[in-house]
C-alpha cells in the first residue's frame, strides 16, 4: 500500500518540481535546494505567504500549495524586478499567486502528456506570519521543504482518485 | 458589466449561504448573522483558521473559502461536542475542513439543479493568527462577513468562466 502511494507520488510530484525549477529559474534566476520529501501526516507546510490551488480531472482530484518565508518571497521579487520590498505587500502576494498558477500549469502539461488530465481551479493567496497549511485528502499527501540563503519554502501536493 | 457580475453572484452565492446555514444549524445548532456582502477588490477575508477549496466545471471554475476567528471556531466545536477546546487544535482544523467540504457540497447540489455543474477539489485548512485570504480570479469575487457573539467569520467566493 505504502509502496503504491510512493510510486504514485514520484510520478505525480516530479512534474511539479520540474515546473517550480523552470518558473523560478526563468522568472527570477533563482534556484531552491530541495530537501527530503515526507509522506507523514504530522508534517505541516509553514510560511508567511502561500499560494494554494485546487485541481480536478476525470481520474483524480487534489490540491497544491507553495509556502514561502517572508524574506524568501521578497528576495524572489528582488531578483525579478531589481528592487526588494521590505515586507509582504500586495505585489508580493500577486507574484505568489502567479507562481502558483504557473507551477500548476507546468505540471498540468507534463501530467497531461502522461495521460493524467486535470483542470485548475482559481488560485488563493494566504498571507499571515507563520501560518500552516494542511491538505485534507483521503489519498497520499506529500510535503517537500526547500532551502535558499534567503529563507525556506515548502510545497505540498495531494491527490485523491476521483470518485 | 457590474450588473451582470452582481446578478451572477446572487445566483451563485445564495446556494453557499443556504448550505452554510444548513450545515451550522444541523451540526452545531448555531446561526451566524450575515453582514453586508462586498464585491470590492480591497476587502479581505481574515481569520485564525480557514478552509479553502477549488471548484472546476465545464462552464466555470472558482474557489471558496470560509474563515473563522479562533473563539468562534472553538464555540462551533463546543456546540457540536459539548466540550469547548481552549485553542485551535487538530480537531478544530479537521472540523473546519469538514465544514468547507459540506458547505461546498451543498452548494454544488443546488447549483447542479440550476444547470451549473462543477467538481470539488480536496480542501485545504490554513491555521495562523489573523491571516488573510485573497482569491485570485479574473471574474467577480464576493466577500461576506458574518457575526456571532463568539466571533466573526468570512466567506469568499469567486468564479471565472471556464476557458
TrEMBL record, chains A, B:
PANTHER family, sorted: CHEY-P PHOSPHATASE CHEX
Domain annotation Chemotaxis phosphatase CheX-like: ranges: 49-147
Protein name: Chemotaxis protein CheX
A Gene Ontology biological process term: chemotaxis
Record flagged with keyword Flavoprotein: no
Keywords: Chemotaxis
Database matches in InterPro entries: CheC-like_sf, CheX-like, CheX-like_dom
Organism of this sequence: Pseudidiomarina planktonica
Pfam families: CheX
Transmembrane segments annotated in the record for this chain: none
Superkingdom: Bacteria
Amino acid at each position: 500500500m505504502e509502496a503504491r502511494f510512493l510510486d504514485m507520488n514520484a510520478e505525480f510530484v516530479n512534474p511539479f518540481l520540474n515546473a517550480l525549477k523552470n518558473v523560478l529559474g526563468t522568472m527570477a534566476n533563482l534556484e531552491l535546494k530541495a530537501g527530503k520529501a515526507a509522506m507523514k501526516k504530522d508534517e505541516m507546510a509553514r510560511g508567511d505567504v502561500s499560494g494554494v490551488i485546487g485541481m480536478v480531472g476525470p481520474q483524480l482530484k487534489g490540491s497544491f500549495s507553495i509556502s514561502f518565508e517572508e524574506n524568501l518571497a521578497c528576495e524572489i521579487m528582488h531578483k525579478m524586478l531589481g528592487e526588494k520590498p521590505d515586507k509582504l505587500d500586495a505585489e508580493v502576494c500577486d507574484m505568489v499567486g502567479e507562481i502558483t498558477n504557473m507551477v500548476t500549469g507546468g505540471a498540468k502539461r507534463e501530467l497531461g502528456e502522461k495521460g493524467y488530465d486535470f483542470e485548475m481551479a482559481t488560485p488563493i493567496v494566504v498571507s499571515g506570519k507563520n501560518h500552516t497549511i494542511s491538505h485534507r485528502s483521503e489519498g497520499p499527501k506529500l510535503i517537500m521543504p526547500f532551502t535558499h540563503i534567503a529563507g525556506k519554502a515548502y510545497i505540498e501536493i495531494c491527490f485523491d482518485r476521483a470518485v
